[in-house]
Amino acid sequence: MTVYHATRGRRRTRRVRVLLGLGVVFAVLAGTAVVMWFWPAGPRPPFQLPVACGEKWQLGTYPGHGTYDVDLFPMEGKTAWGRPVYASYEGTVTAAGVNGELGGRTPQNPDGPRGSGGGYWVKIDHGGRWETAYMHLLEPPMVEVGQEVKTGQQLGKVGSTGDSGAPHLHYEQRRGFQKVEAYFDGKASEITHDDREYAVFRTSNNCAGR
């Protein structure tokens, strides 16, 4: 009986130590998350429009779209379908796949069933707690998670997957955990709150390697 109780006591002690160790790990992780939340972001990267060099695009929003969300439509050429989407700045791909449900809108069936979410999309970590997101792509992204990309590298093509009514590129810039007003070539996009429908026009200077 003495041996039995001693063994049981040692097991209980080991369990307590394991639980204490796990508690320390969780406390460290929680503390790290809090620090990351309040840690100031680095300088804004020199983001460029995520479209071809020299092209003029409309940047717009509408009521209920989302604060600082930008929809891009080409002002030149016959169609938005299949236009190349480029990285705004160099970084590491952290998401590349499907966000929500794809739906069935294609160049051959533009009025097909609408999906949900961002459809085919890409998200890039640019360092310094800055991120960009690219949504409603036509096809599966041309990059994969963990891949390093350069400014102006093609990520995919403009489409209308997900919750999209027409072919366009939905674009976001994030600082830390918050969306912020997008800047392109050092200038504010002027797309801020979604209290009304409005648009501005910009010409891309995303000319790296071109």
From TrEMBL:
User: Which is a Pfam family this sequence falls into?
Assistant: Peptidase_M23
Q: Which Gene3D superfamilies match?
A: Glucose Permease (Domain IIA)
For this UniProt record, give its keywords in alphabetical order, as a comma-separated list: Membrane, Transmembrane, Transmembrane helix
Q: Which SUPFAM superfamilies match?
A: Duplicated hybrid motif
Instruction: Kindly list the residue ranges recorded as spanning the membrane.
Output: 18-39
Q: Return the protein name.
A: M23ase beta-sheet core domain-containing protein
* Domain M23ase beta-sheet core positions: 80-179
Q: Which residues form a coiled coil?
A: none
Q: Name one GO molecular function term.
A: metalloendopeptidase activity
Q: What is the lineage of its organism?
A: Bacteria, Bacillati, Actinomycetota, Actinomycetes, Micromonosporales
Q: Which superkingdom is the protein from?
A: Bacteria
Which InterPro entries does the protein's record reference?
Cell_wall_metabolism_enzyme (IPR050570), Dup_hybrid_motif (IPR011055), M23ase_b-sheet_dom (IPR016047)
